[in-house]
């Protein structure tokens, strides 16, 4: 688990320092507060995690995270000339659809647990996070593909 956490923190830190709007905002926050942007990002992630446990609209936030960013990234991938990003996001949507069908049968049971929306949003983020063996690749290659090939 700590290997994935360190890999996540490194990827997040790299993204926060990459050029673009996020890096500019991160630099401004870092300069203003004196706190490194990785710590600010981890604090925001922590607050979102607490909200996902106790927040009133946790289901809506979970669905926005699992749909809005992946939809935006999928459109960007379709507009790019590279095939790899199309495959990445198509794999995400196959896993998302598979998970939605499985969740349909278990939602009434699991939605009563206080950590349900937090676990679900972490799962969805794991499925699209830009690491080599993210959730979509893992679930597709270990679960969906073997079932499909039979």
TrEMBL record:
The keyword Transmembrane helix applies. InterPro entries: TB2_DP1_HVA22. It comes from the Eukaryota. It comes from Medioppia subpectinata. Its main location: membrane. This is Receptor expression-enhancing protein. It is found in: Membrane. PANTHER family: HVA22-LIKE PROTEINS (PTHR12300), RECEPTOR EXPRESSION-ENHANCING PROTEIN (PTHR12300:SF161). The chain crosses the membrane at residues 38-69, 113-131. Belongs to the DP1 family. Keywords: Membrane, Transmembrane, Transmembrane helix. It is a multi-pass membrane protein.
